[in-house]
Design goal:
The chain has about 170 residues and is α+β, with helices and mostly antiparallel strands. Helix content is about 30%, strand content about 40%. α2 (about 35-50) packs across α5 (about 155-169). The chain has one domain. The strands form three sheets. Strands 3-7-9-8 form a four-stranded antiparallel β-sheet, with helices on one face. A three-stranded antiparallel β-sheet has the order 4-6-5, with no helix packed on it. The radius of gyration is 17 Å and the shape is globular. The longest helix is centred in the C-terminal third of the chain and has 14 residues, at about 155-169.
Length: about 170
């Protein structure tokens, strides 16, 4: 069975109270695209070639703690902070972590719908690895950004592939 069309659906409805606390306007994004697999590949390869890719030095891992410890344990240098009930996890640079991290900043690139799933699937298939993905938005740069964490032992291969992919776009 060949897939003729791909539907990329993105819906984000962020916690209004949290963003008001940070002084950021509430964001709601809704967009549906109808495109073939080839059209999606072309669009997302072009988006990648017009983005900034940066490989971070060091290694990263998660630190976990209770919600009651947030004031004591929060690290302002953390790449991410996320809560699951009464537990927090933050992704931080550590001496002997599990992940190498790189970022992709889509500064002003208009349409990156489906990029995370497309790119994560590509990395998983190409290198047979698991990975972590963090997604954010920077309204000052009019774009979104992703951070990808891959096993330390595979980062050189991923970096070489990223250089090739950036040229193909």
């Amino acid at each position: 069975m060949q897939v003729k069309q791909l539907v990329s659906f993105t819906f984000c409805n962020f916690n209004q109270q949290f963003f008001r606390y940070l002084g950021v306007k509430t964001l709601s994004i809704y967009r549906v695209l109808m495109e073939t697999y080839e059209e999606q590949n072309q669009r997302l390869m072009e988006a990648l070639s017009n983005s900034d890719v940066n490989f971070l030095s060091g290694s990263y891992d998660y630190e976990e703690f209770n919600a009651t410890e947030l004031d004591l344990k929060f690290n302002v240098n953390a790449l991410a902070l996320i809560r699951d009930g009464s537990r927090w996890s933050q992704l931080v640079n550590v001496d002997e972590g599990s992940f190498s991290v790189f970022s992709i900043h889509f500064n002003g690139v208009d349409n990156v719908n489906g990029f995370v799933g497309w790119f994560a699937s590509f990395l998983k298939h190409k290198f047979n690895i698991g990975l972590i993905v963090l997604v954010g938005s920077n309204s000052l740069k009019k774009g979104v950004y992703d951070y990808y964490g891959v096993p330390i032992a595979r980062i050189a291969e991923v970096e070489r592939e990223m250089a090739l992919m950036s040229k193909k776009g």
